[in-house]
Specification:
The complex is a heterodimer of chains A (566) and B (524).
Chain A (H helix, E strand, L loop, with lengths): L5 H19 L5 H19 L13 E9 L4 E7 L1 H24 L4 H20 L3 H10 L1 H11 L4 H30 L2 H4 L4 H8 L3 H17 L4 H8 L6 H17 L8 H8 L2 H26 L1 H4 L5 E3 L2 E3 L1 H26 L4 H22 L2 H32 L10 H4 L1 H14 L6 H16 L1 H26 L16 H19 L2 H18 L22
Antiparallel strand pairs in A: 1-2, 3-4
Helix pairs in contact in A: 1-2, 1-4, 2-3, 2-4, 3-4, 3-14, 3-18, 3-23, 3-24, 4-5, 4-6, 4-14, 5-7, 6-7, 7-12, 7-13, 9-10, 9-11, 11-14, 12-14, 13-17, 14-17, 14-18, 14-24, 16-17, 16-22, 17-18, 17-21, 17-22, 18-20, 18-21, 18-23, 18-24, 20-22, 20-23, 21-22, 21-23
Chain B lengths: L6 H4 L2 H6 L1 H19 L6 H25 L5 E3 L4 E3 L1 H28 L4 H19 L3 H19 L6 H32 L4 H13 L13 H20 L7 H8 L2 H26 L4 H24 L4 H22 L2 H27 L16 H4 L1 H15 L5 H20 L3 H29 L13 H19 L2 H15 L10
Antiparallel strand pairs in B: 1-2
Helix pairs in contact in B: 3-4, 3-6, 4-5, 4-6, 5-6, 5-12, 5-15, 5-20, 5-21, 6-7, 6-12, 7-8, 7-12, 8-9, 8-10, 8-11, 9-12, 10-12, 11-12, 11-14, 12-14, 12-15, 13-14, 13-19, 14-15, 14-18, 14-19, 15-17, 15-18, 15-20, 15-21, 17-19, 17-20, 18-19, 18-20
The chains are: A mainly alpha (566), B mainly alpha (524).
Chain lengths: 566, 524
């Protein structure tokens, strides 16, 4: 089944829905609005399922659209996805329905604006994943801030104003610096002496076996000499000839800061706990499930292939007699993030009796550290693990935020000490919570185990110490998650307010079960998912390290593990 | 050269044709003055519509002027006093746009202030004439006279609401400081004339190149005098005068007071039209006459731009008065516009023109929304007066949101496109000259846009994020005001989403500054 302009449809359909809600419904008709919005999200999800038809054996960019837009600055309306983007888009549309469904009771004011913003947010985020033109990517990337700002600012908790502006400005700092990087890399494409050196092998690798992708790439090359291009594939190809030096390192960091704040990597993470704690449940779901992935996706799509020399650099800096490289910095920050996130979650929740949402937020910092570590392992295992972990984190952190939201709707508090013995009154809830806790701590047969294992194995292949530090973080994770579960669900009901809590209702089951099912599916049989990301990942590894010794066997068979030279 | 002119040739038809838009505006202004006397008091607002028609006719004649002469540009007239080139045309377009929008948002406002006088519109038109001659003047004398025409009318306009104390004070301050800065500017011009031996910008440019090249000036009286220091002195005096006119730090002190005290509609005009005109003058003098000294003035202007951006943005953060806040925002925007002058390449020029165009739309739009809040008993110029506007008037709040995001430079709005070119020009210049400070200037400027979002978003915060409403009474809207706002918002969005035709036009027209042939972008 081939639907023309599929990506554009998926991107702009939410916008159409938003307009319908804005002009087709009365303001106070909340009941109809939320039903319609949820149905519309469902429609978008169904359409996005057509992306499953992505040719996994071919890899590369597919579903390509290419239209003229602003020729005078070389920007085109180019859409295209590889397997990684396919999974992320489907995850986005799925979480869209779930977010809408989970808001039915939670959102009690200004419903019309709420669902309009939720739809706009989805349009912007899908646009980020679907863009194949850096200019277009940047537009979506930055515009996605606005709906989220409103979601936190209007429907958030007590300190919502502070959290909203902090979220907005923090992420803006990163993206404006990235803007200079975008401009510079665009001017570089006009340099014929640079782009002329791109070898056909590099182009073949990036275009994979797609003829359409190849045509777009060749067009981009022709356009580049005539006045520059923003085509992402071409920019990646140019990465192979970009000379290593101050400029490449600066460009790397211009992009890296933009994405690192979004990820968020330690020490740029401070906006995240505030935003999560104040955001409404659906806001947290989208934030943790999707928006954080914009950062890691950016590293995967831009930083690694566009600045390969900087990404694998181990010796650029020389301070106080110590020689280290860009990669050392990134890996160190990732590892600090893993451990810091876990410790902070412990501290705020175990010691200071904090907010469950804050705990999940800090565990996200830790989790995204694992993604970054996997990415900068720069080998197929690491990258496969990292990309899969993006999806998995989208599943389990969204689920945890939803679970916290469910109890918050009943008790209007999220303090851990308020709860205890919930398994007696809410057995269904306790079961789902247990499943998600086990997912989060990486129990085998659940999704996170696969991705953490792959990411850490990738890191181990490069440097066993990296994996060791990451493992420490994972152990800490297990510690506080289990502690949390014990405090909330076991023991006796001490607090009389908890005695008559109703268990999950049909609507809540409806949005929790798909996530549980997905977690089990990926945990037991990850092959279909790995197949989507494998070829794009290999292309990136080849781009960063043309000499990487690929083996014909699938990279996830553990028996062939061996240490590789860094 | 003027001395040789014989008076009959001064009024030849071809030269007059080139200034038809200005002639139309002058005539309309005179008619408006007469109409004001003839019409009964209740019908006064027809003077405004007449003034609008005058602007429209001027725009049509400007378009025809461009169509008929597009291949012959640049055209000199009146013995080199005036030069019609693409640069002049695009700026005139901006002035006419600013004038039309200003008149449209003024009507209701003046009625409410009880100051509905025809002179107001005549003064707006006269100011526009001054601006238009500023854009096409090619001689220090014509430039100075047009500058004074513009400035004098503005002194009156700023103090126009004569019963309002703040307005009187603002008018006085603006007048005193403006006269002083004009003096400084004139001093610079006189030195420049003394050194270069001509008031014509083209002649000056050639002399500057010769002097910097070390060759003695032909037939000059100044044999043996070291001319380079004198040139630098002239440059600094000119820069100081012009920095005042565009409200760049450290000559920005007048702006917040004048902007706050002036009638809101005049503030809108002052912050867009007058600023654009001053930039036209800035570009003419620094890029054409002193173009050879770029290596000398670029660091100076760059430094001023960096400081202006910082001071404007950080000072705006603490303001509670919306007009004062927008005044500081306007100061910081002058800094961003200076980046285009610093870059001095085609990317930068396009940025300058596109950003000025968008800035005119979004700034007048923002002031238009402020005007709509004005009514008896509520001045409506505090940021808090916007509270709950999102509930009360969703359309108005949405437009204000778009203006604010565009002022900050969020993608999909015109402000982003303008900033894109301004920053791009700097990066290109850095690569072309091999100097890193251009890059760091760009980094500095772009980091400060984040600060600017902090205060622009404050409007959005009070409009949407609060649950209360500051004032439940309906807005004071008029069809003209509403039309002006819609035009502005549509312009901002269209330029943001599909800027191709605008960039194309801007690039064709500013090519007269770079000397590049129109058509393809000069890439480096």
């Amino acid at each position: 089944m081939k639907i023309p302009y599929l990506l554009s449809i998926i991107t702009w359909l939410p916008l159409v829905g938003a307009l319908i809600i804005l002009f087709g419904f009365k303001r106070d008709n909340a009941r109809a609005i939320k039903r319609f919005a949820t149905a519309w999200f469902g429609l978008v999800f169904l359409v996005s399922l057509a992306l499953i038809g992505y040719d996994r054996a071919a890899g590369g960019m597919q579903f390509i659209e290419d239209c003229q837009w602003i020729p005078i600055i070389g920007a085109r309306y180019q859409m295209g996805v590889d397997g990684v983007a396919v999974l992320l888009i489907v995850l986005t549309t799925l979480l869209g329905i779930i977010a809408a469904l989970s808001s039915w009771e939670y959102i009690g004011k200004r419903e019309q604006e709420y669902y309009v913003l939720l739809l706009l947010l989805q349009a912007a985020v899908v646009g980020v994943f679907a863009s194949m033109d850096l200019f277009l990517f940047y537009l979506f990337f930055e515009v996605s801030l606005v709906p989220m700002y409103f979601l936190i600012g209007i429907w958030g908790g007590e300190r919502r104003l502070y959290a909203a502006i902090k979220f907005f400005l923090y992420t803006l700092v990163g993206s404006v610096i990235m803007l200079l990087g975008v401009l510079k890399i665009y001017f570089l494409t006009q340099d014929a002496s640079l782009t002329g050196a791109i070898t056909p092998a590099v182009m073949d690798n990036l275009a994979a076996s797609g003829t359409q992708a190849r045509a777009v790439l060749d067009n981009a090359r022709a356009a580049a000499s005539a006045g520059g291009t923003f085509n992402i594939m071409f920019l990646q190809a140019m990465g192979s000839v970009l000379p290593m030096g101050t400029m490449q390192v600066l460009l790397f960091f211009a992009f890296a800061i933009g994405f690192a704040i979004k990820v968020p990597m330690w020490p740029f993470h401070t906006w995240l706990p505030d935003a999560h704690v104040e955001a409404p449940t659906a806001g947290s779901v989208i934030l943790a499930g999707i928006l954080l992935k914009l950062g890691t996706y950016g590293f995967f799509r831009f930083n690694l292939p566009m600045f390969p020399e900087a990404a694998k650099d181990l010796s650029y800096f020389n301070l106080f007699g110590a020689t280290f490289g860009v990669r050392h910095i990134m890996v160190t920050l990732a590892i600090i993030g893993i451990i810091y996130g876990a410790l902070a979650a412990m501290y705020f929740v175990v010691v200071r009796d904090g907010d469950v949402k804050k705990l999940v937020a800090y565990s996200s910092v830790s989790s995204m550290g694992i993604v970054m570590l996997g990415l900068f392992a720069l080998n197929p295992n690491g990258l496969n693990g990292a990309v899969l972990h993006m999806i998995n984190h989208g599943i389990y952190s969204a689920a945890l935020f939803l679970l916290v939201g469910i109890i918050y709707e009943r008790r209007h508090t999220r303090k851990v000490s308020e709860f205890g013995g919930l398994s007696h009154v809410m057995p269904g809830y306790a079961t789902v919570f247990l499943a998600m806790t086990m997912t989060a701590i990486g129990l085998p047969l659940l999704c996170v185990f696969i991705s953490e294992f792959l990411a850490m194995r990738g890191a181990f292949e490069v440097q066993p110490w990296w994996a060791a530090w990451a493992a420490l973080g994972i152990i800490l994770n297990a510690g506080y998650m289990l502690w949390l579960y014990q405090r909330m669900f076991f023991g006796n009901i001490d607090n009389p307010k908890n005695e008559n809590l109703p268990d999950m209702n049909g609507r809540e089951w409806a949005y929790m079960l798909p996530l549980v099912a997905l977690s089990l599916w990926i945990g037991i049989y990850p092959k279909p998912f790995i197949e989507y990301i494998q070829r794009p990942v290999n292309a990136v590894v080849r781009q960063v390290r043309p000499d990487y010794p690929f083996r014909p066997a699938a990279p996830q068979t553990p028996t062939t593990a061996r240490a590789e030279p860094k | 050269m003027l001395l040789q002119a014989n008076t009959t040739a001064l009024f030849n038809l071809r030269d007059l044709q080139l200034i038809v838009p200005e002639l139309i505006l002058t005539l309309s202004a005179c008619v408006v003055l007469v109409l004001e006397v003839i019409l009964p008091r209740r019908e006064r607002k027809w003077t405004a519509y007449f003034a609008l028609c005058g602007v429209a006719f001027a725009a049509v004649s400007l378009f025809l002027l461009w169509q008929t002469n597009r291949d012959a540009l640049p055209l000199d007239a009146f013995y080199g006093m005036i030069r019609i080139d693409g640069f002049a045309l695009v700026f005139k377009l901006i002035f006419l746009l600013a004038a039309a929008l200003t008149i449209a948002i003024s009507m209701r406002y003046l009625e409410m202030e009880g100051e509905q006088h025809g002179e107001y519109y005549a003064l707006i038109l006269f100011a526009t004439v001054g601006m238009m001659f500023l854009a096409c003047g090619y001689d220090l004398i014509s430039l100075y006279i047009s500058l004074e025409l513009m400035a004098l009318t503005f002194y009156v306009l700023v103090g126009f609401t004569k019963r309002e104390r703040r307005s009187n004070e603002a008018g006085m301050k603006y007048f005193l400081l403006g006269a002083f800065s004009s003096g400084v500017l004139l001093y610079g011009m006189s030195i420049l004339f003394g050194v270069a031996g001509s008031t014509n910008l083209g002649d000056i440019s050639r002399s500057v190149t010769t002097i910097l090249g070390g060759a003695p000036l032909e037939g000059a009286l100044n044999a043996g005098l070291p001319l380079r220091p004198l040139l630098l002195l002239a440059m600094i005096a000119l820069a100081a005068g012009l920095f005042f006119k565009i409200a760049a730090v450290p000559f920005h002190m007048w702006a917040p007071d004048a902007y706050e005290g002036a009638p809101t509609s005049v503030t809108a005009f002052l912050s867009t039209g007058s600023k654009a005109a001053s930039f036209a003058l800035f570009a003419r003098i620094f890029l054409e006459a002193l173009g050879g000294m770029r290596a000398d003035w670029a660091p100076l202007v760059g430094l001023v731009a960096a400081i202006t951006i910082m001071v404007g943005n950080w000072a705006a953060v603490t303001q509670a008065n919306a007009k004062r806040l927008l005044a500081y925002s306007s100061i910081s925007n002058a800094g961003y516009l200076l980046l285009g002058v610093v870059a001095a390449n085609q990317y930068g020029y396009v940025g300058l023109v596109v950003y000025l165009f968008v800035y005119t739309l979004m700034n007048i739009g923002a002031f238009g929304v402020i005007i709509s809040l004005r009514r008896r008993g509520l001045v409506g110029d505090n940021v808090d007066d916007f509270t709950g506007l999102g509930q009360k008037a969703p359309g108005m709040a949405l437009m204000m949101t778009i203006f604010m995001l565009s002022l900050g430079g969020l993608p999909l709005t015109g402000g982003f496109i303008g900033k894109w070119f301004l920053f791009g020009g700097l990066l290109q210049r850095a690569a072309a000259d091999g100097k890193d400070w251009y890059v760091w200037l760009a980094v500095w400027a772009i980091l400060n846009t984040v600060v600017s979002f902090f205060y622009y978003v404050r409007f959005i915060r009070v409009m949407y994020l609060g649950d209360g409403v500051a004032d439940a009474r309906p807005l004071s809207l008029s069809p003209a005001l509403r039309t002006a706002l819609v035009v502005a918002v549509v312009g901002v969005i269209v330029i943001g989403v599909y800027p191709q035709p605008f960039i194309n036009l801007a690039q064709t027209l500013v090519s007269s500054l770079t000397g590049a042939t129109s058509g393809a972008f000069a890439l480096k």
